Amino acid sequence: MFKLACGDVMPGCAARFENRDRGAMLADVAGHAASAHGITDITPEILAAVESKIAFVA
Ligand SMILES: [Zn+2]
């Protein structure tokens, strides 16, 4: 299971994501980033920051 705490990328945000499909989780994160943080343009830098925080728990 892939897991991500949004607060690890955006301090103060309590949103958490988990999904067994990494791509699907990233899609959820992208939707959250747009609706909660106004980030509609996921730059390579943002994507790298997010991916560096993804944990995998079997
Ligand atoms: Zn967030």
Describe this structure in words.
By secondary structure, the protein is of the alpha+beta class. It has one domain. It contains 2 helices and 3 strands, in the order ββααβ. Strands 2-1-3 form a 3-stranded antiparallel sheet, covered by helices on one side. The model has no long low-confidence stretch (mean pLDDT 97). The protein binds zinc ion (ZN). Residues 6, 10, 13, 15, 32, 36-37 line the site of zinc ion (ZN).
Distinct ligands, ions and cofactors found in the model: zinc ion
Form type: globular
Strand order of the largest sheet: 2-1-3
Reported for the largest beta sheet, the result is: 3 strands, antiparallel
Parts with pLDDT < 50 across at least 5 consecutive residues: none
- Look at the helices and sheets and give the structural class: alpha+beta
Amino-to-carboxy terminus distance: 6 Å
Order of helices and strands: EEHHE
Give the count of structural domains: 1
Radius of gyration: 10 Å
Summarize the structure.
The chain has 58 residues and is of the alpha+beta class. The chain is built from 2 helices and 3 strands; from the N terminus they run ββααβ.
Task: Sum up the structure in keywords.
alpha+beta; 58 residues; three-stranded antiparallel beta sheet; binds zinc ion; 45% helix; globular
Topology:
Blueprint: E1 2-5, E2 16-19, H1 22-37, H2 44-53, E3 55-56
Antiparallel strand pairs: 1-2, 1-3
The structure holds zinc ion.
